[in-house]
Amino acid sequence: MAPLSARYASAVVQARRAPIRVTAIERELGTRYTVDTIAGIQRRFEKCDFVWLMGSDNLATFHRWREWRRIAWSVPIAVIARPGYEMATVASPAAAMLRRFAMKPAQFRNRGTWSAPILVTLRFDPDARSATAIRAGDPDWASRYGNAPLRDQITHRPIPRIGSEPGGA
User: What is the pLDDT of residues 30-73, one digit of tens each?
Assistant: First the structure.
């Protein structure tokens, strides 16, 4: 896995035109599992509404995640449809449980009129390549993000640079 600073800087670039603020708050919270991260950010940011965003490949195995039902009852889940995962997603135990809470994206935009559990599927023409294939096509991508000073967009704390992280180069 690339160093945190490179992954963070890359995410900031990818989110530049979206109403998304990038964070590495798991480092500060000391959480390892999604269920714990969600609980931590909900405690810390009580007045904020969160939506869990995942790819349909993750929904296919979501039932194997630690306390996945608690996650589903804690935050609405927006799933990005990915080519090749339609059947695995439909057949998954998590999708079967969440199916009755499915909502259309247009309904979901009406904030304040819904609460978890909610499952929204977002469809668009994504890049069909896997993250593994993208990294293999540009194995040195992380080195382009190593020099800029970074601050977390949520906590405003510095993000350690490549080389200053535990196990960094």
Answer: 999 999 999 999 999 999 888 898 888 888 899 999 999 999 99
d(C-alpha 1, C-alpha 22), whole Å: 18
Q: What angle do CA 12, 42, 40 make, to 5 degrees?
A: 80
Classify the phi-psi angles of 150: left when phi > 0, otherwise alpha if psi is within -120 to 50, otherwise beta: beta
Task: Give exposure, 31-68, as e/b (b: 16+ Cβ within 10 Å).
Answer: beebbebbbbbeeeeeeeeeebeeebbbbbebeebeeb
Select from 160, 32, 45, 54 the least CA-distant residue to 98: 54
Kindly report whether the global pTM for this prediction surpasses the value 0.85: no
Location of structure tokens 């349909």: 56
Structure tokens at 136: 């293999």
Helix and strand numbers (H, E) in the chain are 9, 6
Domain spans, the chain: 4-128+138-159
Cβ–Cβ under 8 Å, residues 25 and 41: yes
